[in-house]
Amino acid sequence: MKILGIGNAIVDVLSKVSDEFLVKNLLTKSTMKLVEETEFKNLLSSIKIEQTISGGSVANSIVGLSQLGNDVGFIGKINNDPLGINYEKGLLKENVSFFYKKQNETLPTGTCIILITPDSERTMCTYLGIAGKINESDIDYKSIQKSEITFLEGYLWDDGDPQRALEKAIESSNKVAMTLSDLFCVERHKKKFLDLVERKLDIIFANEQEILSLINSEKIEDAINFAKNTKKNVIITRGSKGAISIHNNEVSECKANTDINIVDLTGAGDLFAAGYLHAYINNLSLIQCLEKGTEMSSKVISKIGARI
User: Fold this and answer.
1) What is the C-alpha to C-alpha distance for residues 263 and 277, in angstroms, rounded to an integer?
2) Does pTM top 0.70 for this prediction?
């Protein structure tokens, strides 16, 4: 395979809400919050569901890569319940090889409520269910060794079994890409993420907010200099300001596509990563990688949901 993704196998539930709804429920706009089952059920009962789609950040990227004609696979933990069965079918329908054998579990398949405000921003409340319980026995390490790139998800990084499983995946990989996923993840695991970026990863995806938090700075120039010093391929997405790719001392920049009707920003980063990695594995230049990422993210934010 070209790329094997490992991430949270999450079913997305999309709903349009007001800014007041976020305030009332003590939610911070454009971030992801982990919730327990009780809070999840309370939120679910107070919204109108627009759409239900199989999701998960890296899974969305892997589906995008498959749609671009690449041989890809995914590992994510699901339950043998209706949501899990439909999740697996959704991946197979998109020609993504699924390297996980579902079993009857005590926890349900993970679910994420995606709240879309009038400004098209998305705020996520995730009940991980069984997805966050991934461990070393769930990972197909032989498939990792046969893949050119392993693509990991910052959302999945957590103390205990998940962290040990991902650390072993990194050790088994030929090349490793990872998305920092969310400001919440960076602040929660800052020391470990910094070590990963500096010592163990080859390709790093982060938005401006995440990378600045990682290095405790407010200046994008500091982030660029930090990225240069890592000697890695660091990609920084900046919303309407476009995106930057830094590899060694080479810095490339691409403007955002302004000629689009933004409907929902869900999946923008996921599909950007898909486009970038597609160009990367096809040996295109850094600027061409950025342009393909921008093209894919522009497509997904023109519709509801995180998949094209």
Assistant:
1) 24
2) yes
